[in-house]
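Example record

Each entry pairs one chain with its bound ligand, protoporphyrin IX containing FE.
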Amino acid sequence: MSGEAILPPDVAREVIDPHAYAEWNGLLDTFDRLRQESPVALVKPEDGELFDPFWLVTRYDDVMRLSKDNKTFLNNPRPVVFSFRQAIEFSRQATGSDMLVDSLVVFDAPIHPKYRRLTQDWFMPRNLAKMEAEIRNIAEATVDRLVAAGSEADFVKLVSGPYPLHVVMQILGVPEEDEPRMQMLTQQLFGGQDADLSGTGMENMSPEQVVQLVAGAVKTFEGYFAELAAQRRANPTDDVASVIANATVDGEPLPERDMAGYYIIVATAGHDTTSASTAGAMMALAQDPEQWARVRADRSLLPGIVEEAIRWTTPVQHFMRTAAEDVEVGGQQVKKGDWLMLNYVSANHDPSQFDDPRRFDAARSPNRHLAFGAGAHQCLGLHLARMEMKILFETLLDRIETIELAGEPKRATSTFVGGLKTLPVRFKAA
Ligand code: HEM
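Structure tokens for the complex follow.
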């Protein structure tokens, strides 16, 4: 492979280092340089035992093009980068597939559109409107807890963490007492790189131990959702759990493994992501207390704030694709079977698309960010995420008169789903 842009080892190390994502600004500087000098470059981790090499794609236009070309750039078999080699081997032995969980994000056409269609309507605004009163109740109860805390609190712990988890568990029909278990399982699947969040000491484990732990988490999830599906088949309701339990594809009910995968992707994709964008929105507003007063007075500013917070935080930091054929990307010859990283953090900070991209600009327009991806796999829950954030902030604006930072916010160490893990705020109830 000659003439390839290969990232120097120190840069390669940085772009796969979860701590770099926790520090953020240094990483954004690196992406600024890469978009200029080497917008598509091969990452060959020095510890070649862990990951296969992949092409890092950093420019907005390239990430958009690859996202929309679902024929050439496939999700299957490995749509995320922390599917390191041992995980793949283990998974192949245990399940016959490269991933421990098969779900929408692992499927390509022709299976993907058939599965996606099953719940697509349920996640559209018209159906979600039926959930509004319920979500508003959850938002009220969440803000009750914040107000009860007095005048200072960790916004992540009290508000942005539990609220989206509660909403998504509600739409899946998971009883409240099981929520901590679901939270823990999600962390094990997605956020295991952060010692404060995983609660498992995963960051000190060998890759083999991590895979065993995650496989155990998946088994627990599968058992749990098999029971839930049986209940929903016996007594269907109008929640999404019932839609999945009673779905058929080509006239057949979903195989057990696919059904569990469907529940798992909705359960896990739906909360840490929205938690991160919600915390980010609050951070931006708390950094500029006058802005809080402005939005309290003029609620028409809220949708712009929600959208900008989603871009500014970019909670899902990447997804991966595999080339179905030899193809040129950003001047580089990508071979059939090569692995590519769509880096949404970099794409959403590309100045060719966003003026002054590191600035939180509540009035940014247009704001065609890539935080929800694009193309066939574009986030299924994007309307729900926006709606949840809007309802929560409406409730907060009603009930909190002033709010400001009360300490240093801290980001999670994670290469995949990332965002704030603490956000100390000082506030005065209205
Ligand atoms: C897929 C981001 C909230 C469910 C995705 C993708 C991204 C993303 C980047 C992959 C897109 C691609 O490959 O082109 C986000 C962000 C959220 C959020 C930033 C919050 C701010 C949610 C919620 C749910 C959800 C609330 C559901 C309850 C899903 C599902 C997929 C997905 C099921 C897989 C779709 C497919 O492969 O067809 N999301 N998401 N997400 N998201 Fe979200």
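Residues 173 and 241 are 7 Å apart (CA to CA).
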